[in-house]
TrEMBL record:
An example Gene Ontology biological process: mitochondrial mRNA polyadenylation
Lineage: Eukaryota, Metazoa, Chordata, Craniata, Vertebrata
Sequence intervals crossing the membrane: none
Cofactors: Mg(2+); Mn(2+)
Originating gene: MTPAP
Molecular function terms from GO: ATP binding; magnesium ion binding; manganese ion binding; poly(A) RNA polymerase activity; protein homodimerization activity; UTP binding
Taxonomic source organism: Terrapene triunguis (Three-toed box turtle)
Protein name: Mitochondrial poly(A) polymerase
Length: 588
C-alpha cells in the first residue's frame, strides 16, 4: 500500500505533454489509457461500427420527442400480446395470425411464461382476431368478462404438436450479471469501447421499448372505459434514452384532450357544456381518478397484480405489477413537469453518443458499489447521478452539451411551456442545436468525471444544469442538485453526509486507479480486469472502507518531479542568461 500512496496523483490535476516513450513495463495486450487517447478521427474509428452515424450525419432531420412518442403509441394500438407454448412452430403461429391481417413485426420473450408481441399493419386486424377468440372455460372460478388485447394461445394436440419442436428464440428482458459484464469489458480494445459495450448491454432494446408502450396501451384500454379520449404514455427512463433493461415503467394518464374546449360556434344564441362532478382542487381530482382506475386495474386488468394506491404522496400514484410484460408500474396523472424532464433528457441523450455512454457507466458503477439503491433512503438516486454527469459535460472546454438556459434561448413559440407556474421552456427541435466541437474520448471523460466530483466543493456549492455552473447552496443539505424546472426543489435532499462522503471516497479511488493505468503504474496483470472493468470490482469499495482514501496534497511523485524540473530549468535559464531572469508565456 505504501508504494501505491507514493504514486498518488494530486487532485489539483495538471496536464503536461509527455515527451518520449515510457520505459515502464506493461503486460502485452493491455492498452494503456494514454495510447487510446487519440485524435477525434482515430477515436471515432475505434468505436463500435455504426455508433456515431447519428452524430455524424449532416442534414438528416432528427425526430422530436413528441413525434417519437406519437409513432410508438400508434404502433402499440396495432399490437397484441399473446401467451403461447414455449415449444411452438413459429411458422404455423404466424400463418395462423396472418389470416387476420398483415403482420409488421413479432418477437418472443419470457415472463411468467412465453409471450409473443405481434404488431399488425392495421388496427382492424385486432378486431378480426377478437371476433374468433373465445372466453376461457373455468370450472371452479368465474372469469371477469373484460376483453383486452392480451390473449392465450393453446395447442389442440399438445403431445403431438410440440413433440419435435424446439423452443422459440426469446429476446432478453434483463441485463447480464456483473461478473459476465466484467469479462465482456476486458475483451474491449480501449476504455472508450468498454463504456460503449456496457451501454449496449444495459440500454433498452427495441423490443423492450415496444413492450413498454404496449403495456401502457393495455392500461389505456381500461381507463378509456371512463375517459374515452385519454392517453396513457410512458415517461422517465422508458423514453428518455437512459433506461436500463429491467427498470420500472412510469405511466402518465393524460386527460388533456378531455379538458380542451372545442371551438365555440360563432352563430346561434347558446353555449353547451357538460355537467361534471366538482371537487375542491386538482390534487383531489387526481386522487379520485387514480383511485377509481386503480380499482379497475385490480379487478379487471388481466395479469395486473399487487395493486397499491399511494394517493397521499407528493405525486399521487397507483403501483402494480404487470406480470405478462414483466414490469413494475407506477401510474400517475397531472404530472406534466415529469414529462418535460423526460423530453429534456431525451434531447441531451440524442445530441452526442458520449452522453449516454458516460451516464450508463457511472450509474452501473454506482449500483455495483451500493451508492444507489432500489430501496428508498439516503442514497443518491439515478436521476441525481444523471444530473451530475450532465453538469460535468456542460463544464468541459468546449462544452459537450448546452445548458438548459441555452436550450431555452433556441426555443420557438410552440416550445413555450409554463406548467403550474414553472418555466419548462426549451427547444424541442434537435436540428436547431449546434453539435459540439469537443472531441474528447470517453476514457478522458470517465477519469475526469471521478476526479471532478472527488474534489467538488459539496460543502458550499450546488449543481445546476440550467446555468451550467456552480452556485452557492441555498440550504445546508449535504448534496444540493437543483431541479431543472421546479427550481426551489433539491432533487437530492434525501442524501445524507455519510452517503455523500462514500461517493466522494469512491470517486477519488477510481480516479486514482485510472490515472495509475494512464501513467503505466498499474499493478494488474494482463489476465486481470482493467479500465472500467477494474472499477466494478468489489475491491474498489473495500479500499475505501478500510480507510485507504485518496487524499489531496502535494506529497505525490508528480508534484515532486514537477518541482524538481522547475528548479533545474530555472537554474539552467539563469546560467544561460548570465544570471538574468527571463519570462515566457509559451506552453511547452
Amino acid at each position: 500500500m505504501a508504494s501505491r500512496m507514493e504514486l498518488l496523483l494530486p487532485w489539483c490535476r495538471l496536464r503536461f505533454p509527455v515527451s518520449g516513450t515510457s520505459q515502464t513495463r506493461r503486460a502485452p495486450g493491455r492498452p494503456r489509457l494514454s495510447q487510446v487517447r487519440l485524435s477525434s478521427t482515430k477515436a471515432a474509428a475505434q468505436r463500435v461500427p455504426g455508433r456515431e452515424e447519428a452524430d455524424s450525419k449532416v442534414g438528416t432531420r432528427k425526430k422530436t420527442f413528441t413525434e417519437v412518442q406519437a409513432e410508438r403509441l400508434e404502433q402499440a394500438q396495432r399490437t397484441v400480446l399473446i401467451n403461447c407454448p414455449a415449444k411452438i412452430s413459429e411458422k404455423k403461429f404466424l400463418t395462423y395470425l396472418s389470416h387476420h391481417g398483415k403482420i409488421n413485426s413479432h418477437y418472443f420473450y419470457e415472463s411468467y411464461g412465453t409471450y409473443a408481441v405481434v404488431e399488425f399493419s392495421e388496427k382492424d386486424s385486432i378486431a378480426s382476431l377478437q371476433d374468433v377468440t373465445r372466453t376461457p372455460g373455468i370450472e371452479e372460478e368465474c372469469a371477469v368478462p373484460f376483453k383486452s388485447r392480451l390473449f392465450t394461445l393453446t395447442l389442440k394436440n399438445p403431445s403431438t404438436q410440440a413433440a419435435n419442436q424446439a423452443p422459440v428464440h426469446c429476446h432478453k428482458q434483463s441485463t447480464i450479471v456483473v461478473n459476465d459484464l466484467v469479462q465482456k469489458l476486458c475483451s474491449a480494445d480501449s476504455v472508450s469501447n468498454q463504456l460503449y459495450t456496457l451501454m449496449d448491454e444495459y440500454q433498452l432494446t427495441e423490443e423492450n421499448t415496444k413492450l413498454r408502450f404496449l403495456a401502457c396501451s393495455l392500461i389505456q384500454d381500461i381507463a378509456c372505459a371512463y375517459f374515452p379520449e385519454c392517453t396513457v404514455k410512458p415517461f422517465g427512463s422508458s423514453v428518455n434514452t437512459f433506461g436500463k433493461l429491467g427498470c420500472d415503467l412510469d405511466m402518465f394518464l393524460d386527460l388533456d384532450k378531455i379538458g380542451r374546449s372545442p371551438t365555440r360556434a360563432k352563430t346561434g344564441p347558446f353555449y353547451m357544456e357538460y355537467q361534471m362532478k366538482r371537487v375542491p382542487s386538482e390534487r383531489i381530482a387526481s386522487q379520485r381518478i387514480l383511485s377509481m382506475i386503480g380499482d379497475c386495474i385490480d379487478n379487471f386488468g388481466p395479469g395486473c397484480v399487487g395493486v397499491q394506491k399511494i394517493l397521499n404522496a407528493r405525486c399521487p400514484l397507483v403501483r402494480f405489477s404487470h406480470q405478462p410484460a414483466g414490469f413494475q408500474c407506477d401510474l400517475t396523472t397531472n404530472n406534466r413537469v415529469a414529462m418535460r424532464s423526460s423530453e429534456l433528457l431525451y434531447i441531451y441523450g440524442s445530441l452526442d453518443s458520449r452522453v449516454r455512454a458516460l451516464v450508463f457507466s457511472v450509474r452501473c458503477w454506482a449500483r455495483v458499489h451500493g451508492i444507489t439503491s432500489t430501496i428508498p433512503g439516503p442514497w443518491i438516486t439515478n436521476f441525481s447521478l444523471t444530473m451530475m454527469a450532465l453538469f460535468f459535460l456542460q463544464k468541459r472546454t468546449p462544452p459537450i452539451i448546452p445548458t438548459l438556459d441555452q436550450l431555452k434561448d433556441l426555443a420557438d413559440a410552440e416550445d413555450k411551456h409554463i406548467i403550474e407556474g414553472h418555466d419548462c421552456t426549451f427547444a424541442s427541435n434537435l436540428n436547431k442545436i449546434k453539435p459540439t466541437e469537443n472531441t474528447e474520448t470517453l476514457d478522458v471523460l470517465l477519469s475526469d468525471f471521478f476526479e471532478y466530483f472527488g474534489n467538488f466543493a459539496f460543502n458550499k456549492n450546488s449543481i445546476n444544469i440550467r446555468k451550467g455552473k456552480e452556485q452557492n447552496k441555498p440550504e445546508p443539505s449535504p448534496l444540493y442538485i437543483q431541479n431543472p424546472f421546479e427550481r426551489a426543489l433539491n432533487i437530492s435532499k434525501n442524501v445524507n453526509e455519510s452517503q455523500l462522503d462514500r461517493f466522494v471516497a469512491l470517486a477519488r479511488e477510481c480516479a486514482w486507479i485510472l490515472q495509475q493505468e494512464d501513467t503505466g503504474h498499474s499493478s494488474l496483470s494482463n489476465s486481470q480486469p482493467w479500465g472500467l472493468a477494474a472499477l466494478l470490482l468489489p475491491s474498489v469499495a473495500s479500499h475505501c472502507i478500510k480507510g485507504k482514501k485518496r487524499k489531496r496534497g502535494p506529497a505525490s511523485e508528480r508534484i515532486k518531479s514537477l518541482l524538481d524540473s522547475l528548479k533545474i530549468n530555472n537554474a539552467n535559464s539563469l546560467v544561460n542568461n548570465g544570471g538574468k531572469r527571463t519570462f515566457s508565456n509559451q506552453t511547452q
